[in-house]
User: Fold Triosephosphate isomerase from Olleya namhaensis.
Amino acid sequence: MRKNIVAGNWKMNNDLPLSEALISDLKRQTKTSNAEVMIAPTFTNLWHAFEATRHDDIEVIAQNMHFAENGAYTGEVSADMLKSVGIKTVILGHSERRAYFNEDDAILAKKVDQALSKDLRVIFCFGEELADRKAANHEAVVESQIKNALFHLDASAFKNIVLAYEPVWAIGTGETASPEQAQDMHKFIRKTLNDKYGNQVADDMTILYGGSVKPANAKEIFSKPDVDGGLIGGAALKAEDFYAIVNAF
Ligand SMILES: O=C(CO)COP(=O)(O)O
Assistant:
């Protein structure tokens, strides 16, 4: 079923004391919308964050994981490790992972497979760079990112996938895709799913937009019919701003 989700990706921000403080602030906010609320702290804060929100309407999710079961992968974290600290959802394919850690479609396909085989829900991120959009190549880029990492899956696997369109040029830049640009791309993504898997998968898919979503622009972006929520970076680091976005539905 399609849902409204607002997920805060904290990226590499907040050590343990700051994470504790932000979670206390988040717990003081009031949710007036039907959106599911998620926060993605860094690995070292996951257990504390899970414990601290156990009785709250906030899901703690992970920013990344490795594709292997376990073994000699220094510095990496496995699906089982995430599950053992209460995590049920993992972000994969973020543009920062793609750009700085060389995660390509083939690696991401393996990560998606591993996460799904462990019953983790995946928030799968993708999006074009500025040069792609200037060359009017944005739809082709997004289509290939989705196809290469996900189209080996059965239709039933998509129940555990949420898509997040994050145009690279709008991340952390203060430049947002216009609500129309977001809507056009989300509609195109749904059509791409429809062409391969039919309208059940396409209509049920939750598609988030990410890239400089702020309290001031969230309402207009979320009002678009194919935008089901947001993946929020900078504005997720302040509880009032984050809940202003959550409540923009
Ligand atoms: O990358 C993002 C969320 O994953 C978006 O970040 P900003 O909201 O800071 O642009």
